[in-house]
Amino acid sequence: MNLKWKPPGSAESGIFFYLLTFALPLPIDLGLLGLAVCGSHAALSRAPRFSYPAWLGLPPFLLSAGLGCLLSPDQTRALHLMLALIPATMIYLLLAGYFERRHTSTLAWVLTALILDLGGWLLITAILHPGQSPPEWVIASGLTAFRVPNDIVLFAILLPFPLALLDGAGHRSRWLCWSALAVVLLLTVIYRSRLTLLVSTVTVGTFFLLAGKRWQLLRGLAFLAVSVLVLDGVLGFRLSGKFLSTWSSRLPLWLTAWRMFLDAPGLGHGTGSYLSLYRQYLDPADLPAWIVFDQRLTPWAHNLYLELLAELGLVGFLSFLGLVSLPLRNLLAFPEKSLFEYAFIAALAGFSIAALFELSLWRQWVGLTLLTIIGLMSSDQHCGQ
């Protein structure tokens, strides 16, 4: 991107500030306050320049989610879940309408700093509480956006951004990128997250393949495999042991979501209804003996696609596909792609894989991450022209 750098405007400043503070345990949500102030200033300063048709996927999805609130058996909880999409939507609108392409590298540094900030916080928490388990570390960290160990998959989704920065970073800046990669690697092993290892492999592999760096791909995957094995061995092969444990515990969750969808295929049961109807649609006696049934009540389906089908039906699911596919289609048609555009696609690939096994769109960081990625894809269609 051969665009002359200039200080970020109010839109960029609000985005950067929110991303760096959204998960911190602060007495008030300073990030949201800063985002609102900066976003308002940007909106009053000049008109947005939305790229057609990339932005057309957002309104139908928000309408379907709003309709889901009306249909939900617990409308209070549904409205509370929808609130998580407000800052994410604001980020998307600022990226798609106001963000200047020249600041993409700055945003990549902000996301790298986010990995170092929140990831480092989680590492320090684990070090300070050696006798506790990963779920207890997540609670002890106090980070508002993290609830389970697999939430560290956020950092694996963001891995392409420090990778993209490595190519043009100066000697003194490279250590920040390498530090971010090391933090993700350490978190994967210490928090024993199979999903984070899988998504890291997908994001790194996709980025290097798109960038045409096949030799770096082989070296990167080899380094990842050896490092994980060595670190896991030092810690007693706890992560490796999880790969040998049962893999079927999510099947009852997915089966429940599928049954809910079949019962209301058009509009679904409403936003957040999975928690309310989970026991009603799942009978452990119907499950084969080889499927492990977790007695705990699970708030989400651990599969974003099935959860959308269950809660918002085909209408919501198709609107979600439009939300993601329109910006991606436009970006793929973009004539000249830099490493940052490849990072957008690799991050979306990692998100899509993580969504198969864990994510729920009503989680704070999930909607924020998705709308940040597709907002960046949309902004690249017009900025810098």
Main sheet characteristics: none
**Average of per-residue pLDDT values:** 86
Rg, Cα atoms, Å: 21 Å
How many runs of DSSP E, i.e. beta strands?
0
Strand content: under 5%
Could you give the order of the helices and strands?
HHHHHHHHHHHHHHHHHH
Question: Could you explain the architecture of this structure?
Answer:
It is a single chain. The protein has 385 residues and is mostly helical. The chain has one domain (10-44, 63-248, 297-379). The chain contains 18 helices and no strands. The chain has helices at 10-21, 30-45, 58-71, 75-83, 85-97, 104-128, 134-141, 153-157, 160-166, 171-190, 194-210, 214-234, 238-244, 251-263, 273-281, 304-332, 339-357, 364-379. α10 crosses α12. The chain is globular, with a radius of gyration of 21 Å. It starts with 9 loop residues before the first helix and ends in a 6-residue tail after the last helix. The model is unreliable at 381-385 (pLDDT under 50).
